[in-house]
């Protein structure tokens, strides 16, 4: 985990100003939830934090470092998207291990981290199944751990 500091974040799409100067401090280990009506800017703010969207202005600091010009892959952030992105041809186990595998982690490390995450989420009985063979809740729980085993400073959802 890590700390997160937002200062005066503004984001406009054309004339539509969605984020109007957000200041937020999240300390290491704190758990924060954004709540608000549909369209109020929750996902936009998460995308700005992750670097998937450029803010119109403002500052994003992770562990005290300014990251506003740092590409998403170098921010140490894992994001779980609202719609699940499971590969239908891969098993639960292979979907979970994909992120680590793509980062070049050795197979033993991938297996160990997938085993740990699947234990925490009670997914062990389903590791050999494909996404179509899971319930909706099981799919969402599987969706999370692909990000969980990665070493992440700030996980956002
Ligand atoms: N790429 C874009 N171009 C133009 N407008 C956008 C774009 N992305 C989001 N918006 C608009 O910005 C506003 C905030 O969208 P956002 O996705 O952040 O909402 P949200 O709070 O996550 O909503 P929900 O609860 O429905 O997920 C909405 O009015 C949306 O239509
Ligand atoms: Mg949203």
CATH topology assignment of the largest domain? Rossmann fold
Oligomer: single chain
Bound molecules: adenosine-5'-triphosphate, magnesium ion
Backbone shape: globular
| Low-pLDDT windows of residues | none
* Largest sheet composition: 4 strands, antiparallel
SSE order: EEHEEEHHHE
Number of strands: 6
CATH class (first level) name of the largest domain: Alpha Beta
CATH architecture of the largest domain: 3-Layer(aba) Sandwich
Could you give me the name of the CATH homologous superfamily of the largest domain? P-loop containing nucleotide triphosphate hydrolases
Task: Give the strand order, joined by hyphens, for the main sheet.
Answer: 2-1-3-4
Distance N to C terminus = 14 Å
Which key features would you list for this structure?
two-stranded parallel sheet, 157 residues, globular, alpha+beta, 2 domains, binds adenosine-5'-triphosphate, Rossmann fold
Describe the protein.
With 157 residues, the chain is of the alpha+beta class. The protein folds into two domains: 72 residues, 3-Layer(aba) Sandwich (Rossmann fold), CATH 3.40.50; 59 residues. 27% of the residues lie in helices and 22% in strands. The protein contains four helices and six strands; from the N terminus they run ββαβββαααβ. The strands form two sheets. It has a four-stranded antiparallel beta sheet with strand order 2-1-3-4, with helices on one face. A hairpin with a 2-residue loop joins strand 1 and strand 2. Helix 2 packs across helix 3. The protein is globular and about 50 Å long. The two termini are 14 Å apart. 22% of the residues are buried. The model has no long low-confidence stretch (mean pLDDT 86). The site of magnesium ion has 3 residues, from helix 1.
């Amino acid at each position: 985990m890590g700390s997160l500091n937002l200062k005066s974040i503004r984001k406009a799409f054309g004339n539509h100003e969605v984020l109007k100067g957000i200041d937020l401090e999240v300390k290491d280990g704190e758990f924060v939830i954004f709540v608000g009506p549909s369209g109020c800017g929750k996902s936009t703010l998460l995308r700005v934090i992750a670097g998937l969207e450029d803010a119109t202005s403002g500052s994003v600091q992770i562990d005290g470092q300014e990251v506003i010009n740092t590409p998403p892959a170098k921010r140490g952030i894992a994001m779980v998207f609202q719609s699940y992105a499971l590969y239908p041809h891969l098993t639960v186990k292979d979907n979970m291990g994909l992120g680590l595998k793509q980062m070049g982690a050795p197979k033993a490390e991938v297996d160990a981290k997938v085993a740990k995450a699947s234990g925490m989420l009670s997914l062990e009985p389903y590791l050999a199944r494909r996404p179509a063979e899971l319930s909706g809740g099981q799919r969402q729980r599987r969706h999370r751990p692909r990000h969980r085993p990665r070493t992440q400073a700030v996980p956002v959802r």
